[in-house]
Design a protein that fits this description.
single chain, 155 residues, mainly alpha, 71% helix
């Protein structure tokens, strides 16, 4: 069954989660801005769905490429993989992933390998959080596509 969720629904869900988890735990904001994805896709819900699915299915592989390049000490491959992930994340309006990948890309280009390891760990965690959010909030398959983006289309 397809359920069209509005931005208010997502905010309400965050508020409910906060009330259930107690006063010390703050709800995490959405790591992806679906309205921005739709806008970047020219208002085309099918294209926005495809872009979202591509990120969901490929971002983890890019993180693995980054981790492998770091383990091998290959800063050029690390820079390229970080650049690729940065581009995918920017299109998705996944700002935290974009910023971490950009830092890794820049440090790789500067030859600053020692500063990269902790950033890669943070990046892997944030990519997984983003993938999980996409899966939980959009159905996680190509079938979700058009329905999840309809509420952002102008009336």
């Amino acid at each position: 069954r397809n359920i069209v969720r509005t931005a208010e629904d997502l905010e309400e869900t965050d508020a409910q989660a906060a009330s259930l988890s107690g006063p010390t735990k703050q709800p995490l904001s959405a790591p992806v801005q679906l309205d921005a994805v739709l806008k970047r896709c020219g208002g085309d819900p099918a294209f926005a769905s495809a872009v979202t699915e591509r990120f969901r299915s490929q971002a983890g592989d890019e993180v693995k490429r980054i981790e492998a390049a770091l383990a091998q000490g290959n800063l050029e491959n690390l820079r390229r993989a970080a650049h690729s992930l940065k581009s995918m994340a920017a299109y998705m309006a996944a700002d935290v992933v974009t910023n971490l990948a950009k830092k890794i890309e820049n440090l790789s280009a500067e030859g600053e390998a020692s500063a990269i390891s902790s950033l890669v760990t943070q990046l892997a965690d944030e990519v997984q959080r983003t993938i999980n959010w996409i899966t939980e909030n959009t159905g996680g398959s190509r079938a979700f596509g058009v329905m999840d983006f309809c509420f952002f289309a102008p009336h």
